[in-house]
Structures are given as C-alpha cells and as structure tokens.
Amino acid sequence: MGLWKRITGVFQRTKKEENTDLESMDDLEQAALAEESELSHHLSLIVDFTYDMEDLKREYELVTSYFSDIQKIEQMAPDQLRKLEDDARKILMLEESRKEFQHTPKRISSERYKCLMRLETEVPKGIERIRELEDMRGKIKRDLEYLEGEKGALQYEEKELQSRQGTIRNTAVVIGLLTVLTVIILLFLNLQYGIDLTVIGAAVAIVAVIIEFFLFLGYNRANSDRELCYKKHNRAIQLQNKVKIKWLNNTNHLDFLYAKYEVNSGKELEYDWEQYRLAVEEEEQYQKNTGDLRVYQDEVLENLRKAGVRDVDIWLQQILALVDKREMVEVKHALNVRRQKLREQMKQNEETRQNSLVCVKGILTEHPELKEQAKEVLTSYHIAV
Fold first, then answer.
1. In the chain, which ranges are continuous DSSP H helix?
2. How many CB atoms lie within 10 A of CB 374?
3. Burial of 153 (0-12, 13-18, 19+ CB in 10 A)
4. Residue 209: which domain range?
5. pLDDT tens readout for residues 239-255
6. In this structure, how many other beta carbons lie within 10 angstroms of the beta carbon of residue 60?
7. Is the pLDDT score of 17 beyond 50?
C-alpha cells in the first residue's frame, strides 16, 4: 500500500498543480484519469517485480553456491574428508547425548537443588548427625517402652503382694478364731463331762502358734517385698523422667536439623543428597559435552574453510549429510527442487514485468505528457528507463 500511495502521489501532485475539478471533467478528462491510474498500476508492478527479481537472483546464486560447496566437500582429499566425517560423527553423538540430557526428567526440583547447593558443605555431616540422633531416638524409645513395661510389672507385683498380705492376715485371724473356739469347746467338755483334754488342747494351741508364726513370717516377707517393689517403682519413674528429657532434647535437635535441610527424615535427606550429586555429575558432563561439541564444530568449520567452502556455518545445521551419503543426496534433491522453483518464479516475474513495460510504453505513446512522472517514479527506485 505504501508503494501504491507513493506512485499515485506523483500524479496527484500534478493534478493539484493543474487545479482540475474532477466533478466538472468531461469524458476526455475522465479517460485521461483512467490512463493515469492504469499507468500507476503498471509502474507499481514494474517496481515490485524488479525488486522481487533481484531477491530471487540472490537466492538463486545462494543455491548455486550451495551446490558448489557440496562439490568442494566431495572433492576433498581422502584424509581431510575422513577427518571431517569423524568430527561430524562425534558431533552427532554429542548432540544426541545433549538431547537425552535435556529430555531426561529432572532428578530433583530447582528449589531443592538450590537448597542443597547452598548447604553443600554441611550436608554430609548433617546426614551423619541426623543418623546418630535417629539411632539414639530409637534407643531412647526402647528405653521408655522398657521402663513403662517395668512400671506396669512393678505395679502388678505390688498389687499381688498387697493381696497376699490381705490373704495372710485373714488366714491368721480365722486360725486364731478357730483356735480360741476349739479351746473353749475343750474346756466346756472338760468341765461338763470331766473329760481330760489337756493334751489335745495343748497340741491344738501349739499347732496354732506354729501356723500363726509362719503366717507372720510370710506377712513380713510380703511387706518387705512390697517396700522393695515400691522403691523399684519410684526408681523406674525417676529413670523414665530422665529418659523423657533425653527424648525431648533429641526431638528438638532433630526438628531443628529437619527444618534446616527441609526434610522429614534422614533417609529423605540421604536420597535427596544422592539425587543432587547425580544431578551435579550430569551437569558437569553436560558442560564437558558442550565444550567438546564446540571443539569438534570448530574443527569441522576449519576443515570446510580449508576446502574452500563458502558458507560453512550452514553445515552445522545439516551435519548428518557430512556422514550419510543418502542424506547428502536428499540435500542435493532439495536444492534442485528449490532452484527449479526459483527459475519458474523468475520466469513468471520477468514475463509479468515485461507485460507491464509494454503497457507503460503504450500509455506513454498515447500520453507523452506523463513521461516525466513515470520517469520520476522509476528513477526514485533506481530502475533504469
């Protein structure tokens, strides 16, 4: 649209200078205006197709240059060509390795990677310390469970001893009452019937005393055991309180380390650390790969320059063609198709341009007064007239 406005502007300036009123034009003037419009149209086509032709010629020369470069590559000395192919194969391998790395899922998130990188020097000791604290926590937990179990056992034992004391006490009372009752009965028989039961009474009393003595000893032993059980129970409570303090300190320290390394356990930190180390190794390998790739690319470009290849950089985009002859054939075929299309387009453009030139000459023959305006348009675009 800009080109069309520029061309039509030349003729509009002429009309303004003549100060012609279009509404009052007669048929002859309207015909002249139509001729000017047609002239503007064809001049526009000439300008467009002239510049298009220059672009097409440059592209055609570029395609021809590519063919020339392929010829130079194929005519390289055997040693030089072998070196070029070896370097190209290495480039393909390195590029494939880079693609695999780029498409491999990340082992660890970026945020986690940055966190571990910031604490990189502290993580190994942190893992060791967390492992020690977690092992200690396991032991503390076992101690708490053992002491809790011992407390329960001592409480049960204390209740059993208390129950035994009650049984002994009740037994002693019963035996005492039976002994008294037996003595009373024997005295009653002796007084009422005159039967001498002194020996029997004495035997019953002696047996009762012996039984009561052993019951007394059992009661005292149970009481001693109960007191010892009570002391053990208190001792277990004291130990449990000390172990609970250890548990609290251990938990606080672990919570601090978990928060510092942003994990929930030592195993999680070990896993993340291993993934981080692998990611670092892969990144280092990727960087080395990148460096090697540049070296081989530079060697390929240098070999191509020595062979006289004009556009060396383009071959880095089609490196496979330097290794696979079938790929080189495909490149040639694509260039042939491209060159053929360029020829056809150049022919069509030139035909259209020539047709417009013929039309312009015809218009200028009929209207010589428009020659200066036409010349001005073409000259402004550096087109020879």
1. 2-18, 27-74, 78-103, 110-118, 123-193, 198-261, 266-306, 325-366, 371-380
2. 24
3. middle
4. 114-262
5. 889 999 999 999 999 99
6. 16
7. no
By CB atoms closer than 10 A (0-12, 13-18, 19+), residue 41 is: middle
Q: Which residue has the tokens 């059992």?
A: 218
Q: CA-to-CA distance for 79 and 63, rounded, in angstroms?
A: 28
> Using DSSP, how many helices (H) and how many strands (E) does the chain show?
9, 0
Judgement on whether residues 56 and 170 belong to the same structural domain of the protein: no
Q: Within this chain, do residues 254 and 316 fall inside the same structural domain, yes or no?
A: no
Q: Is the separation of the CB atoms in 165 and 220 below 8 Å?
A: no
Tokens read off for 194: 């005159």
Domain count, the chain: 2
* Domain final position from 207, 229, 262: 262
- The end-to-end CA distance of the chain, in Å, is 23
Q: What is the mean pLDDT of residues 188-205?
A: 75
For the whole model, what pTM was predicted?
0.57
Listed in sequence order, the residues at least 6 apart from 195 whose beta carbon sits closer than 8 Å to its beta carbon are 189
Q: How many CB atoms lie within 10 A of CB 11?
A: 19
Q: 194: which DSSP letter?
A: -
3-state secondary structure at position 308: coil
Residues 91-125 pLDDT 10s? 999 888 888 887 778 888 888 888 888 888 999 99
**Is residue 88 in some structural domain?**
no
Task: List Cβ<8 Å contacts ≥24 apart for 297-305.
Answer: 297/91, 299/83, 299/87, 300/84, 300/87, 300/88, 300/91, 303/76, 303/80, 303/83, 303/84, 303/87, 304/69, 304/73, 304/84
- Residue linked to tokens 């548990």: 247
Strands of the chain, DSSP E: none
Regarding whether 64 and 173 lie in a shared domain, the answer is no
Amino acid at 324: D
Q: pLDDT digits over 251-278, tens only? A: 999 999 999 999 999 999 999 999 999 9
* Confidence band of 136 (pLDDT split at 50, 70, 90): very high
Centroid of chain to Cα 338:
43
338: CB partners within 8 A, 6+ apart: 63
Domain assignment present for residue 33? The answer is yes
